[in-house]
Write a structure and sequence with these properties.
The protein has about 325 residues and is an alpha/beta fold. The protein folds into 2 domains: about 220 residues, Rossmann fold; about 100 residues, 2-Layer Sandwich (Alpha-Beta Plaits), CATH 3.30.70. Helix content is about 35%, strand content about 30%. It is built from 11 helices and 15 strands. The strands form 3 sheets. Strands 6-7-8-3-9-10 form a 6-stranded mixed β-sheet, sandwiched between helices. The protein has a 5-stranded antiparallel β-sheet with strand order 12-13-11-14-15, covered by helices on one side. Strand 9 and strand 10 form a beta hairpin. Helix 4 packs across helix 5. The longest helix has 18 residues. It is elongated and about 80 Å long. The C terminus is likely disordered. The structure holds adenosine-5'-triphosphate and magnesium ion. Magnesium ion binds next to helix 1. Magnesium ion (MG) binds next to helix 1.
Length: about 325
């Protein structure tokens, strides 16, 4: 498959602040590619450079085969953008917004009518097109923005934090529409997000970005695999916990042991049976486990693994697949 986006050593500085730091990667036609990173990581800055809104300080970028500095107009013809900050006209109806956008792209009346019908259908917005945007729910407003981004049949659609601030149900609904655009229309999608679940659900490949640097690029599955097969976190009553660590180091199915705050994080081969084994081992040696939690690695763990930092999430995390509180339990 051919590359729709080729980025080499892309760097952007703002008055000495390096917002994007020597980024190199390619995106293939038909991919949903995500930049996952916390606030201020440089996601919007990268997106703006790819969309020819900002000039790079150095490095090179090609989108749809055109160079961002020389082929600005050609690139703008072949892309669609949904900005992080909503910029739909709330005093107009959805249809009026779409129609206005079609005019900007010099579409004739007939084409505009056809495209509007098409995007309303794709985004399941039929029946809502004549309502003033300000009277629509936040999720529906966002859907109109995505619909607008698709009006010109772009090869690449950029979505900068498409579901920011939406509740989880509305977010899921929008994910399904984004998927439809990719699967039915074959459009390449570049998405930025700081929602772990969003990157996991939507993206074929994810670039983990932190402080302007790409830590790694891979499929969500591979990124999680690297972290380990399963994670067990243990909380112990303070006495003798170092001795238990010594014992655990002797077990070959425990691949990594690390203190995180007051809990012991174990990277283990195996699943629930390991929890029971650990409890038995602790009981045998008279250690007190106050809490134990087994979970499969999430992209959040991958983020921590690759950047050494936690990504802040304002939604419930996926952890806690199997959790037992055993406060006060003693041999
Ligand atoms: N026009 C600008 N002038 C100066 N600094 C800027 C400008 N735009 C962005 N920055 C800085 O560059 C860094 C990256 O910002 P950017 O908006 O790309 O991050 P982001 O990953 O999109 O964050 P968020 O998740 O909050 O949207 C930040 O430190 C930001 O303050
Ligand atoms: Mg941003």
């Amino acid at each position: 498959m051919s590359n729709v986006i080729e980025i080499e050593n892309l760097t952007k500085e703002f008055d000495g602040l390096v917002a994007v730091d020597h980024v190199t990667l390619n995106v293939k036609a038909g991919e949903v590619f995500g930049f996952l990173g916390p606030n201020g990581a440089g996601k919007t800055t990268i997106t703006k450079m790819l969309c020819t809104i900002l000039n790079p300080t150095s490095g090179s970028v090609k989108v749809c085969g055109y160079d961002v500095t020389r082929g600005r107009d050609s690139i703008r013809e072949c892309i669609g953008i949904v900005f992080q900050d909503s910029c739909i006209d709330k005093f107009l109806t959805g249809r009026e917004n779409l129609d206005f956008h079609g005019r900007i792209y010099h579409m004739g009346r007939k084409t505009r009518g056809e495209r509007i019908a098409e995007v309303l259908n794709l985004m399941e917005l039929k029946g809502k097109e004549d309502i003033k945007v300000s009277d629509l729910s936040g999720g529906m407003q966002r859907r109109f923005e995505v619909a607008r981004g698709f009006m010109n049949h772009p090869e690449v659609l950029f979505l900068d934090e498409p579901t920011l601030g939406l509740d989880i149900q509305t977010r899921r609904n929008l994910w399904n529409h984004i998927r439809t655009l990719n699967e039915q229309e074959g459009i390449t999608i570049i998405l930025t997000t700081h929602y772990i679940e969003e990157a996991d659900y939507l993206c074929h490949r994810v670039a983990i970005i932190d402080q302007g640097k790409i830590a790694v690029v891979d499929t969500p599955g591979k990124l999680k695999e690297v972290v380990g097969i399963n994670l067990i976190s243990l909380e112990l009553a303070s006495e003798g916990s170092d001795d238990l660590v010594g014992l655990l180091r002797g077990l070959d199915w425990i691949k990594e042991i690390e203190w995180r705050n007051s809990s012991l994080e174990l990277n283990v081969e195996g699943g629930e049976e390991r929890v029971l084994q650990l409890v038995e081992l602790a009981n045998e040696h008279g250690f007190v486990i106050t809490a134990i939690d087994l979970r499969q690695p999430s992209l959040e763990d991958a983020f921590l693994h690759y950047t050494g930092r936690e990504i802040r999430e304002d939604e419930g995390s996926v952890k806690g697949l199997w959790k037992t509180r055993m406060a006060g339990r003693r041999k």
